[in-house]
Design brief:
About 0% of the residues have low confidence. This protein is an alpha/beta fold. The chain is built from 16 helices and nine strands. The structure holds guanosine-5'-diphosphate and magnesium ion. Magnesium ion (MG) binds next to helix 4. One of its GO terms (cellular component) is cytoplasm. GO terms for molecular function: GTP binding; GTPase activity; kinase activity. Pfam families: MeaB.
Length: about 375
């Protein structure tokens, strides 16, 4: 029969061992199918409405929180709209958590601190969300994976929630995604949000702009580090925590703390009406963790009374909006088809010395504005 054939995975040397043949299917006119189309369709993100996610988050359902965050992190245009719709609904419910940023060089012990501190807060009856801003994650595929093993205990705690750093996408990027995820977590009912970031490049400035309290985790014996450390980072911090104050390191840690305190004395404080101080702790042994929570609570009460707390949040919202406008302008400009076509030509003219930069930019904008008319 010409419409019959052996499948290609049959061993040609021993074809008799297989009785299978492939036969062409036939269509019978008027025959109806037994399975209604769509029955086996995979349930996707899109099958859940924003309303369902909204209600789920307010009811405290973890799966719905995760779905909401997935929406926010998605780079698809239609998810972007849905995510904004969700945020709009939840906005009034957000804002009640204490937002804490934690920075420091790799290996300082940020993740270990969060494990100890987060567990301490959970034991005190609070609910804790841990987010991360990791500038290297879009390249390395997420170094927080290694961190999650450092936060094993916290990751298993039903009062805690750990979300790795989102990878960078076209629409807005890590900054927006982390900020919006934070708002979602607040609406869900977390009391404390901890944001870990590696102290490299711009990420600590970005995180400072998202949080109420900003903490720098440092190592002992940092005499040299102190010299080399950018004064700028210290001026962003509301507390400097000398970690690993245990074992042989303890005396050294205390010495380091007073060295930092001396320097802090001459620096501009990060928050009006608050003096930044250095503390010691051992994240591994859980020593000094409670004291840091007391410091933060004290900070919140002082700044709330003076109005600095709300003032900062308002300023952060304004700054966030400004950044998003800049973001959109940039994307809108560079992805504009007319600009994309024209830019390389004009660049060449500038490079070859046939056009001044100012004239070139002016020409580009003329073309850009014309595309709106
Ligand atoms: N002795 C001691 N080691 C610590 C302490 N905190 C963290 N470590 C160790 O320092 C290393 C780096 O910690 P990790 O939390 O991953 O640092 P991160 O890169 O800042 O997040 C790990 O091997 C930890 O076990 C501490 O309080 N005492
Ligand atoms: Mg870490």
């Amino acid at each position: 029969m010409p419409d019959e054939k052996r499948p290609e995975w049959i061993n040609p040397d021993e074809p008799e061992k297989f009785s299978t043949v492939i036969r062409k299917g036939v269509e019978v006119e008027g025959q109806t199918t037994f399975v209604k189309s769509g029955t086996f369709k995979k349930k996707r993100q899109d099958d859940v409405t924003t309303e369902q996610i909204y209600e789920g988050i307010l009811r405290g359902e973890r799966t719905m929180l995760a779905r909401g965050i997935t929406l926010i992190e998605s780079n698809a245009e239609h998810h972007f709209r849905k995510a904004q719709d969700l945020l709009q609904k939840l906005l009034a419910k957000s804002g009640r958590a204490v937002r804490i940023g934690i920075t420091g060089v790799p290996g300082a012990g940020k993740s270990t601190f969060i494990e100890a501190f987060g567990t301490y807060l959970c034991n005190a009856g609070l609910k804790v969300a841990v987010l991360a801003v990791d500038p290297s994650s879009s390249l390395s595929g997420g170094s927080i994976l290694g961190d999650k093993t450092r936060m094993e205990q916290l990751a298993r705690n039903p009062r805690a929630f750990i979300r790795p750093s989102p990878s960078e996408g076209k629409l807005g990027g890590v900054h927006r995604k982390t900020k919006e995820t934070m708002l979602l977590c607040e609406a869900y009912g977390f009391d404390v949000i901890l944001i870990e970031t590696v102290g490299v490049g711009q990420s600590e400035v970005i995180v400072r702009d998202m949080v109420d309290f900003f903490m720098l985790v440092v190592l002992t014996g940092a005499g040299d580090e102190l010299q080399g450390m950018k004064k700028g980072i210290m001026e962003l911090a509301d507390a400097i925590v000398v970690n690993k104050a245990d074992g042989d390191n303890l005396t050294f840690a205390k010495k380091t703390r007073s060295e930092y305190n001396q320097i802090l004395h001459f620096l501009q404080p990060a928050t009006k009406g608050w003096s930044t101080k250095a503390y010691t702790c051992s994240s591994l042994q859980g020593v000094g963790i409670g004291e840091i929570w007391e410091v933060i609570q004290n900070f919140v009460s002082i700044t709330q009374q003076s109005g600095v707390f709300d003032e900062r949040r308002r300023a952060q919202t304004k700054e966030w909006m400004k950044n998003m406008i800049i973001d959109q302008l940039q994307t809108g400009f560079f992805f504009n088809p007319a600009i994309k076509e024209l830019l390389p030509k004009i660049e060449n003219e500038v490079i070859s010395g046939n056009k001044t930069v100012t004239t070139a930019v002016d020409e580009l904008f003329q073309v850009y504005y014309k595309t709106f008319r």
